[in-house]
Design brief:
alpha/beta; 6-stranded mixed beta sheet; binds adenosine-5'-triphosphate; ATP binding; globular; ATP-binding; nucleotide-binding; ABC transporter ATP-binding protein
């Protein structure tokens, strides 16, 4: 054991966060958070709006100033230059070029990551945008835009994919297809960290990180959450867990 009373990081660990404190403005956004994300798995980051999900993701991809604690990603300090090509990050605000078509946006990222043209077409199809491949990104709907942004991250074939609410605004069929895609990626060895504030997505995940008001309430599997609370519905299980842990 080390001085944080946690086992050492192993190569099976993609992300190792220890004793993380983050302040944003006057808010304490994260308070003493320690989590371990296993490689080749889907980890869901769940909790109510404002609980700190995006802040934890930003800390992991290295864009957040942290007050104290350590964040290790694929064995390196978060934000290390050599992680840039190994980590994909999709924020809630799509960051793509509005004047370029979907294909040209994805091709740009494919070129950065030395990926073949076939990967571009395959990725555009995978996010359900084949029929909009030649549409300028500026003319897409909100849901299409976020899928185009997702394609830009997917095409690089990163080892770690950090996705901030990737299924918001998508219809049920497309959501199901995307979760199938995420599962296929995890089975191929990619690590996915996916945030959501809707608990019905939690069943797609191998493990859940439950956050509330900047604190980690629990790290467990969906079945463990049901067993610990006796609630078949994950939504109710989360509420019960919060009430038990906080005495609310
Ligand atoms: N730019 C900012 N400046 C100051 N405080 C911020 C800033 N961004 C977020 N916060 C605060 O930090 C806390 C955590 O915010 P964060 O965006 O991480 O939550 P979240 O769980 O991702 O929320 P949501 O589900 O609504 O996206 C909140 O109290 C929020 O008000």
């Amino acid at each position: 054991m080390n001085d944080t009373n946690q086992p050492p990081t192993t190569s099976a660990t993609a992300v190792d966060v220890r004793d993380l404190h983050v302040r944003r403005g006057v808010h304490r956004a994260l308070e003493n958070v320690s989590v371990r994300v296993p490689r080749g798995s889907i980890t869901g980051l769940l909790g109510p709006s404002g609980c700190g999900k995006s802040t934890l993701m930003r800390s992991i991809v290295g864009t957040q100033i942290v007050e104290s604690g350590t964040v290790t990603v694929l064995g390196l300090p978060a934000g290390s230059a050599s992680l840039r090509r190994r980590v994909g990050y999709v924020t809630q605000a799509p960051s793509i070029y509005p004047d370029l078509t979907v294909t040209d946006n994805v091709s740009y990222f494919a070129a950065l990551y030395h990926r073949p043209k076939s990967a571009v077409d395959e990725t555009v199809t995978a996010v359900g945008l084949a029929s909009h491949a030649r549409t300028p990104a500026g003319s897409l709907s909100g849901g299409q835009l976020s899928r185009a942004s997702l394609a830009c991250a997917l095409v690089g074939d990163p080892e770690l994919l950090v996705l901030d609410e990737p299924t918001v605004g998508l219809d049920p069929l497309l959501r199901a297809e995307l979760w199938d895609r995420f599962r296929a990626l995890a089975e191929g060895g990619t690590t996915l960290l996916v945030s959501s504030h809707v608990m019905d997505e939690a069943d797609h995940c191998d493990e859940l990180l439950l956050l509330r008001e900047g604190s980690l309430i629990a790290q467990l599997t969906p079945d463990e959450l049901r067993e610990q609370t006796g609630e078949p519905s994950l939504e109710n299980a989360f509420l019960r867990l919060i009430r038990t842990r906080t005495g609310a």
